[in-house]
């Protein structure tokens, strides 16, 4: 990293080792020193559970130390470690976003493992900003649903489509779908209207209301 010379914009994310768990402050310190003496790089911290017996992030501790994340360009969390249910995960994203706002930070929240037609929207309305995952390479996006690739091809393309071309066609279609979903997110951000999510508008609105009730109606 100290010798990084590429001219493309890059963000360096703290290392995630499956057999290593560290106290939160140690995770912060390690991420701050990523790249050694090189200062002019963008760093993102990927927050992990602090002990090997923990399956989920320790949200109260993260919230209590929100100010310590100010040096980072983004804060990463994995979808699976956010909580045991979709609603728990939405609520926990909301708690992290509220804590960052209280610390006067607008740092993006990056959810690893979430890039599909539903969960990305649910996490977005709770305050998450960046989504990535491999779902778009494995499935097909169609009218708010994430479908098995060949099922997607059946409903999306002519029945005469060469099955050898389905993977490439699916990826191209998904890429366009994600661009449209990003525009819908931007519209929601400016208008606050759940109907912009079209096929998933009702369920996103319902789960958002449930999550905000858990957060105290904020």
Task: Summarize the topology.
Layout: E1 11-13, H1 24-32, E2 42-46, H2 59-64, E3 74-78, H3 86-102, E4 109-112, H4 119-125, E5 130-132, H5 135-138, E6 139-142, E7 145-148, H6 149-156, H7 166-191, H8 201-214
Parallel strand pairs: 1-2, 2-3, 3-4, 4-5
Antiparallel strand pairs: 6-7
Helix pairs in contact: 3-8, 6-7
Helix fraction bin: 40-55%
* SS summary, helix count: 8
Number of strands: 7
Secondary-structure element pattern, one letter each: EHEHEHEHEHEEHHH
Q: Could you explain the architecture of this structure?
A:
With 218 residues, this protein is α/β, with parallel strands linked by helices. The protein is built from eight helices and seven strands. The strands form two sheets. The chain has a five-stranded parallel sheet with strand order 1-2-3-4-5, with helices on one face. A two-stranded antiparallel sheet has the order 6-7. Strand 2 (42-46), helix 2 and strand 3 (74-78) form a beta-alpha-beta unit. Helix 3 packs across helix 8. The longest helix has 26 residues, at 166-191. The radius of gyration is 19 Å and the shape is globular. It starts with 10 loop residues before the first strand and ends with a helix. 25% of the residues are buried.
